[in-house]
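Reviewer comment 2.1 asked that we show a complete input and output for one of the modelled complexes. We chose the guanosine-5'-triphosphate case, as it is the one discussed in the main text.
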Amino acid sequence: MSLSNGPNQQTTRDFAGRKLKTLPKSILDNNENISKVDLQQNRLKQVSGISKLVNLTDLNLSRNELLDFPEEIRQLHHLKKLYINQNNIKCIPDNVFPSLQQLQFLKLSTNRLTELPSDINQCLSLSYLNVSNNYLKDLQALVGLPNLHDLYVEKNRLTDLPEELFVNLTMFKATGNPLRKPPGEVCVGGLKDIRSYFTMLRDSSSTVKTIKTMFLGSSMAGKSTLCRSFQQCCPVKVDEADRTVGIEITEVERGGVRFLFWDFAGQEEYYITHHVFITPQAFVILAIDLSSYDSTDPQSFKDHVSFWISNIQLRVPDSVVLPVGTHIDQCQDQMDIDRKKKDIDSKLQNMLSDRIEALELRKEELQESDDPSLFSDQMDDLSRLTDYNLKVLDLLLVDCTKPENIQMFQDHTLKQVTNKDNFPSIERILPGIYQEVEEHIQDLLRKDDIPQHGRVNLSDLLEIYISQKDLDPQNFKCILRYLHQIGVIVWYEEIPSLKEDVFVKPSVLIALFKAIIRHDLVKQIREIPMQQLRRNKILNKDRETWVSDYEEKATLHNVAISILVRKELETLDVADVDLVVGDGNRPGILLCLLQHFEVCLPTKITSPLNPEAPEFHPSRTWVASKPCVYDPDNACMFPSYLKNNHTVLKIWGEDKLSDLNVHIYFTPEIPYGFLHRLIIKTCPLYPCHWVGKDHCCFRSGNNLTLIKAKTVNEDQYIEIRCKEENDIDIKKSWQMIREIMFKIDQLAQEWPGLCQLVHSPCKERGCSAYFQWRDWKDWMKSSGSGNSGSTQEEKMTCRNGHTRRTELIYPRGLFNSDST
Ligand SMILES: Nc1nc2c(ncn2[C@@H]2O[C@H](COP(=O)(O)OP(=O)(O)OP(=O)(O)O)[C@@H](O)[C@H]2O)c(=O)[nH]1
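Response of the prediction step:
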């Protein structure tokens, strides 16, 4: 048990994952020199006797069943590091922390703390504190900790943060709190923005209530009608020709609440851009056309309701959704309406409870495995999902043709958004200057000091501000970041080529998107005037090639993109067109954005042969002398518009039992557009690739790898297969699999309501057994050699008794019991 004896006879004891209910006698009897004890992942409810370990510096009690904070810890005067996260601790008594003068690191996350002891600020050496995932309402107790640098307070119930807390911090994470001072949108900007916020708050402050309201639902469900009728306080008839293209953004104030309306187009073509615009902390109004809803057809519930709820649940799982039944005047009679309402309400409730049940079941499966401690990351992921609470309100019936129904819809919406249980953080405390800046930007637009299309250079905007308002540039940027977060402006600071571009009218940006992401794109191409084609040296037959390429290969020629966007820009009076659509040298704002958000893929990035390229030398990292260049004669591919997998299958050929084969299961399902975005993310790694509707094939040297999305018995997974030509390539194949899994993991972060389990199916023909991967994320973060770890099991046997070499099933060495 003793793992190391240092020169000064310090001893480390490892009792992790041994199902212990009390402290082992061996450490209590022979305790003098023990400095580190690892007791994580046991079943400890108390740790009587721990105070005997007087020389303890590191104590790990995480993942146990402690209900009370062990008071005896106060006697461990040498303690430097304490892990006591993932227990059920409700309260910490006074007089513990003043005794722990050496304590530097304290992890208390995932407990049930409602408050911190008032004397925690006497723990003078504390520099790292993690209290995420508790029920804390304030952090006043932490004020005055002189050495606190890293503070994690995510997922608590914090509303106001004390300014004094931020004096020495170098790391601060606070997402998942109903913050109003500073608002969460300020906190995501980081410590600099928080400090700027408090400085500006000293001058003046105001309380505002703002809510982003997203209208979602199938095409023609009545989203625009609800949105416009709400704004005009009376029924507004929306013409069919006036269907929403992309997203419409408007603003209205009612009952002291500022509503920022985002009306999403319902046609499927637009779903591929939804991930860019569906953001957390919004109120979702889900429009359902009751006249076309059929309660006897499960597909009808899927199309009108569950598709949308699943999407919201995966992407913004903490949302509040109000389902609204429209077109009730076109239903048969009141009975028909009542029946449909009852059906939708009950199916929705079942859907939500089924999901919780499925998650619990998965958790139980892991718990019942031989050694649950090997699956602890996955258990945490599942617990995180069960913690989310998507709130779906009762279906509201609205006849959009009746004024009194519109009034009722308005009143009901206002009541829901001002209900503190639904939106604890609708109220925000803001420095007066925030509102001034926002109003002033609108003023600049009105006075034409900013071009009407609203794209403005950051330095120009800064100059206007510094000269007119005497505002510090850092403070100004902090305000811009806040306005971006609430959706009033768009500033993609994180995209290098766009960090100087501020879009003070987000609708312009959406107009750019909708110039090419639209349901009637073919019609738009066909309507390009001949004159314009000629100006671009394009023949009519080229136009037909564009159409057929788009229809058959989902690719759109860059020149076509440029013409369509130019047309849209003309209506918006944008002068610097090249900047948006690109010129011979650079791709322009639009393509940067579409590629950044993984909506399309440049079909070919050419890199001309360069005779001056540096010589390749195996021992040195090779650096390209010329970067890849943008070629205006190329095209962009929109993988989500592809119709089949013919080309991919031709290259791939047959699946073989010898292929390395990994299944990544998605709970609860693969989000819409996930695979295509994965393809767009992965293709640049392997320039030799073939893309299909839901398959994609990559070649690297001799290795051929296939990814595809599959559904078997309602389980959805992505399969990664590698053709195994010879043993030498196995390591390289596992590296390719690892790269793809890394991209999957990266992408999955954008869907907080999602988790994955990984299996390798047994390689015996007809055998249904599989090998479940243990916690694999460390493998992805590691160098990926696939050979780390000490002793290795040479062979694995499935539950049906079939034996195979380990490296044909897992990346060898990482999943044997010793290496974990
Ligand atoms: N009779 C009746 N017509 C409605 C009702 N709600 C909407 N409509 C009509 O249904 C049609 C579609 O409504 P929209 O509001 O454009 O639907 P949408 O969901 O915004 O459609 P997309 O823009 O395609 O996403 C319009 O002609 C509306 O006037 C209703 O409650 N009763």
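The radius of gyration is 29 Å. We note this here for comparison with the apo prediction described in Section 3.2.
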